[in-house]
Specification:
GO terms for molecular function: DNA binding; sigma factor activity. The protein contains 9 helices and 2 strands; from the N terminus they run E-E-H-H-H-H-H-H-H-H-H. It is mostly helical. The radius of gyration is 20 Å and the shape is globular.
């Protein structure tokens, strides 16, 4: 995949008509994203992600409908999904592994404990890097990018059941490897 820098955003080097139509709405989408996010960098990211998603899903666009409305809906849905993911109190991989032996009393971690947790997290990340590709990618998408099973399925173009199976096996393998390290 070849990217070229057009000034504001990165675009796939493809001479396709739909991409050109998408680019015509770039400014409108950026201003909408800026109103949603309140931040220039986040607005650029949201605009880029929306246009990329629209390009990937171009086969689902119905030409009789307004492209601008379709893009607006796609952007607002993406923004809502991102906000929802940020607001969820998800149990991340590092929480699950670091907190595997929870203490009965809740207290704030000392500096030493925080350093130990960071060291442990680094060890976990190194072990993740050693996992086979089919397992590593689902672990990263699920626990570091916060994607749902359905989103991982779409991203990797594999059935949702396969995502669940690979994630289960990846966690099991990771847990086995980590238990031998300590």
């Amino acid at each position: 995949m070849v990217f070229k820098d057009t000034g504001k955003f990165l675009w796939k080097s493809v001479g396709d008509e739909f991409l050109e139509r998408l680019q015509q709405h770039q400014r409108y989408l950026f201003h909408l994203a800026l109103r949603l996010t309140g931040n220039t960098e986040d607005a650029k990211d949201l605009t880029q992600e929306t246009l990329w998603q629209a390009h990937r899903k171009s086969d689902k666009y119905v030409y009789e409908k307004s492209l601008k409305a379709w893009l607006r809906t796609m952007m607002t849905n993406r923004f809502r999904d991102q906000k929802r993911k940020k607001s969820l109190n998800m149990v991340t991989l590092d929480d699950a592994l670091i907190q595997s032996d929870p203490s009965p009393t809740t207290h704030t971690s000392s500096v030493e404990e925080q350093v130990e947790q960071k060291i442990l997290l680094e060890k976990v990340k190194k072990e993740i890097d050693k996992l086979p590709e089919i397992y590593r990618r689902v672990i990263i998408l699920r626990h570091f990018h916060g994607l749902s099973y359905a989103e991982i399925s779409e991203e990797l173009s594999i059935p949702e059941g396969t995502v669940k199976t690979q994630l289960f096996r990846a966690r099991k393998l990771l847990k086995e490897r980590m238990s031998h390290k300590f």
